[in-house]
Amino acid sequence: MNAQSLLKEIENMGIEVITGVPDSTLKQFCDGLQSYQGQLKHYVPVNEGAAIGIAVGTYLSSGHPACVYMQNSGLGNIVNPITSLANQEVYGIPMLLIVGWRGEPGVKDEPQHVYQGKITKELLDVLSIPYAVLDADTTMEEMETILIQAKDAMAERKQFALVVKKGTFEKADKFVWENGYPMNREWALGELLKMIPQEACIVSTTGKISRELYEQSDKLYGNHDRIFMTVGGMGHASMIAFGIAQDQRDRKVVCIDGDGAALMHMGGMAFLAANAPENYIHIIINNQAHESVGAMPTGAQAVSFVKVAQAAGYRKALSITKQEDMAQIRDLLNEKGPVLCEIMVGLDSRADLGRPKETAAENREAFMSYLHR
């Protein structure tokens, strides 16, 4: 299916706004969205629940439903606004959902997607959201029939979901965006690992940051036992690190976050500052994009996490944009926390970047053993 053709059909339904969080299954759709020449207004909010909020506000103001796209993991983030606001039995706000189906049963995928993939259709059933499944064999004629079903559902003030399997959309011209920062992320992560004391533990966010830390740690130290890789639950690494820091008060705890993840639950920064864990180091690797799922820019490229941290009440915050300034982090690691370092990096990764060889449970056991040696 051609993404641009679907976008045109969506616009023909009277939809004027499309909003969401990028997904690798929807990469070709997102690439097509970035180059679409129609009238759709496009917004990339910090999380999927916020996208539902935009869709609610759009309908209240214009009377036109909006389209919301997401990975199926984002269904968890929309449960509250869908059930307490948009559902037919509450305000009855119609909208079209486009959901990338990671972890589809019978299709090999990463461990964090397996359970969510198994329950995706059941979760939509529980939410009373009718849906249709799209795959590479879905024709535009079939799509037109599905969109008629969607329009009928929205006329009844319901939501309707298009559940998209891997490979549904044909490849289009790749969307390419550069942020202008020269520092390589994997190099920066390797330098961080050299500076972080060996007795400290690390909690890393989902996506390529964890994959690069995994490989760099194995290369430098022959293991990655002190790293808890938060392969799912985007945006929650900072709170996982806080839980560890409160129990392991004699150990430095380093959260290595991403800008998209930090934006997703940025209220956590205020909570960290208020609770003031002295052993907490918060590092945000910022490339101003959702790079792990296709490099679409976030909707908040201009945000300064240093200014946010300072306003929230972190004891110290600094920004690094050049390789030669990375050494400043050594001093920061000796400061009383919570402290924050924002490292600005470019958009790039190795084509041969691997993935963890162990299961998530094996990573958990190795990390817990490290903490209690």
Q: Can you describe what's shown?
A:
- The protein is α/β, with parallel strands linked by helices.
- The chain is 41% helix and 17% strand.
- The protein contains 14 helices and 14 strands.
- It has helices at 3-12, 27-34, 48-62, 75-86, 111-126, 140-155, 185-195, 208-221, 237-247, 259-264, 267-275, 305-312, 328-333, 360-371; strands at 17-20, 41-43, 66-71, 95-100, 131-134, 159-164, 201-204, 227-229, 253-258, 280-286, 289-290, 296-297, 316-320, 339-344.
- Helix 3 (48-62) packs parallel to helix 4 (75-86).
- The longest helix is centred in the N-terminal third of the chain and has 16 residues, at 111-126.
The CATH homologous superfamily of the largest domain is termed Thiamin diphosphate (ThDP)-binding fold, Pyr/PP domains
CATH topology of the largest domain: Rossmann fold
**Radius of gyration from the CA trace?**
21 Å
CATH class of the largest domain: Alpha Beta
Which stretches are low in confidence, meaning pLDDT under 50 for 5 or more residues running? none
Short note summarizing the structure:
This protein has 373 residues and is an alpha/beta fold. The N and C termini lie far apart (54 Å). It contains 14 helices and 14 strands.
